[in-house]
Every structure is written in structure tokens, then in C-alpha cells.
Amino acid sequence: MRMRIGARLFDGPGPYLMGIVNATPDSFSDGGRFLDPDLAVAHAFRLAEEGADLVDLGGESTRPGAPPVPANEEQRRVVPVVAALRARGFALPISVDTTKATVARAALEAGADLVNDVSGLADPALARVVAEAGVPVVLMHTRGTPADMQSRARYGDVAAEVRAELALVLRRAEAAGVDPEHTILDPGIGFAKTPEHNLELLARVAELRALGRPLLVGPSRKSFIGKAAGAPVEDRLPGTLAAVTAAVLAGVEWLRVHDVAPARQAARVAAAIRDAARPR
Ligand code: HH2
Questions:
Q1: CA separation for the pair 216, 147 (Å, rounded)
Q2: Ligand 1: which residue has its CA nearest to atom 15?
Q3: pLDDT tens digit string along 18-52?
Q4: Is the CB of 20 under 6 A from ligand 1?
Q5: pLDDT of 280 over the 90 cut
Q6: Mutation choice for ligand 1 from 29, 97, 137, CB with most ligand atoms inside 8 A
Q7: CATH code at 262?
């Protein structure tokens, strides 16, 4: 991939790590830990030290069944953190994890560099904000909203359907004026998917390469790991590293993770194995 995000140029196959900062009271694995802006800022600096390439800041939990957060509340959680990071000279690009155009615009004005939209452009106004700002955007596959998405996890061929639906999202983005070179695609692990769908998507993620865009996956601590390994949410790091390894071997460029230092080691070793397999 070759993409400028904020002050950094990402030029190569990666893998690159997006470190997670959840400024929420109710995220599924770390809700309430970083709701205080000072703690969120400190956490972002810690992830940078651990080797993150970018931090992803969110103010709304998207776990299955999560209640929606009003835009003004989400903005109140996120924007001061972006502003404080920039005021303190934070060197990495900042991504804002939001589905709302108003929150995205305010975060970009405060110094964010990328929009991570888990709704796949459900809000057409968000596409226009991204297009006008000329910033990159992560377009993730889902169906419905966190409130009803699990009832929509019905597929004949999950990899083929996710690929076709992401192609539609990409077309919608282009129609709204988003530069296709500014898009990163994500199959949406855990969003409108059963545990079996998540495993199959990770096994077949290379099929999404046909869409011609860099890929991102977010398996970190998710419940399919709990299901496959019988591990509670606080004990899913080893399973997360297995999923990171599988994704890197399949050619995925970006991994969204909570535990950056261990994921970095796993991703680097997986990348070294990936690169050793290439014909020279
Ligand atoms: N997963 C979550 C949130 N944002 N963004 C992308 N692009 N891909 C993902 O898989 C993804 C995402 C859910 O994880 P988390 O932020 O840890 O939890 P919560 O939604 O409960 O805040």
C-alpha cells in the first residue's frame, strides 16, 4: 500500500498496527478505563511507545446490543482527547472511530487524520465530510446497527457476500467524492457475523484483495476467540495473536489491536515468514 495518513507515509505491505483507545464507559473489553480524557491521552502515548503506527480513538461502543450514543456526548468524549494529543505533540496519526458526520468533522478540525467508520457509510453526510477533508477512511463491512446486527448474520457464502457488499460501499464512497486511493477496507470481524463467519472470513481474507484496496482487520479480544479457545475476555491475548498471525500471512496490511507490544512482535514474525515465502 502507499498512503499518506497525517504526517506519515505508509509505503509497503506492512503490517501496520492501529492501537485502540476507547474513551467509553461500556466498551466490551476495556469500558470505563479511558473515559477520563487524561487517561485516554496517557494510554495513546503508551501505545505509541509500544510501537503503534496510528491510534484509533472511539467514543461509542459498537459491541452487539450497545445503545447508541448521542452525537454531542460522543463528541464531548473524543474531541478533547484529539486536541490534547495534538497540543502535547503526539507524533502519530490519529484515527477517529465514529459513524457520525458531525463527530468526524469536529475530530478532524481538532487534528485527527483518518476516519474509521464501522457502519460502512450508513450516514451519507460522513462520506461528504471525508471527501471534503481529503482524508483517508476505513470502510468496514456490517449489516444494520449494533442493536440488530447479530440477527442479520445470515450468509450463503460469507466471504463472497462481504466482498460484494464492500464493493458497494466503495462505490458509494466514490459517488460521494471520496478518492478511492484514500480507502482501506475491513471485513468487520464480529459485526453481523457468527463466530463461524468470523473464522471463515479470517481464513479467506485474501479473497478481499480482489477489491484492490489495503485491508484492515480487528480481531482483538473478540468473542469468536472466546468461543474457539474457551477463553474469557480478559484472557484472549494469545488467541488475538493467532488471529493477527493468520491475517498477516494472508497479506492484510493493518491490524486493529488493544495490546500493541505483543501484537507487534507477532505481526513482525508473521511478516518475516510471509516475506520468506515470496519468490525472489
Ligand atoms: N471493532 C470494534 C470497533 N471498531 N473498527 C474497525 N475498523 N474494525 C473493527 O473490527 C472494529 C472497529 C470493536 O472493538 P472495541 O473498540 O474494542 O470495542 P467496543 O466497540 O465495545 O468499543
A1: 23
A2: 27
A3: 999 999 999 999 999 999 999 999 999 999 999 99
A4: yes
A5: no
A6: 97
A7: 3.20.20.20
